[in-house]
Design brief:
67% helix; globular
Length: 168
């Protein structure tokens, strides 16, 4: 007898379209955040890293104080956001870019998780344990396991070319 919980339903076009929309919106958000940082010559992650107060605060604070590591972290952060955002929008290397994006966002979460203050004065509202960074990171993990790029995106072109080559 087959367990009903182990059956995986096939996604229909509406469901896949909504997941593609989610991918594109998150891609836009990451791309825009990256471009805002790249085009601001005064931007640095130092302040954000200095504000870390959890398990890895020593690591984040050390990066913020390092004249060697801080420029590397800033450059990597800016351009990963731009590249990952662009790839998600295009649906190219979707799974890889979703995993990288989720990892980057989870690092942001680890730097400043909303664990100890139930009421925040931040513009995005009040958070306790769960915030928009964590939610967006988990959404990217979901997108990494669902091939939305093969439905609508450049990954579909790659998939079709590979399929045609194997069928020849």
């Amino acid at each position: 007898m087959v367990n009903q919980w182990t059956k995986v339903p096939k996604l229909n076009n509406v469901q896949l379209s909504i997941l593609v929309l989610l991918r594109v919106l998150i891609g836009w958000h990451l791309l825009y955040e990256g471009l805002a940082k790249v085009t601001n010559p005064n931007w640095t992650s130092a302040y954000y890293l200095e504000q870390s107060g959890w398990i890895f605060s020593g690591v984040f604070n050390s990066i913020a104080e390092s004249s060697f590591w801080l420029p590397i972290v800033d450059f990597t952060n800016q351009w990963l956001l731009v590249v990952v955002g662009t790839l998600l929008i295009l649906g190219l290397l979707t799974r890889t870019s979703a995993v990288i994006g989720a990892s980057l966002l989870f690092i942001y979460y680890l730097a400043q998780p909303p664990l100890f203050e139930a009421v925040s004065m931040q513009a995005d509202g009040n958070n306790l344990i769960v915030n928009k960074v964590l939610i967006e990171s988990i959404a990217l993990v979901c997108l990494a396991v669902i091939p939305t790029g093969q439905f609508i995106g450049l990954d579909r072109v790659i998939y079709l070319v590979r399929r045609d080559k194997t069928n020849v």
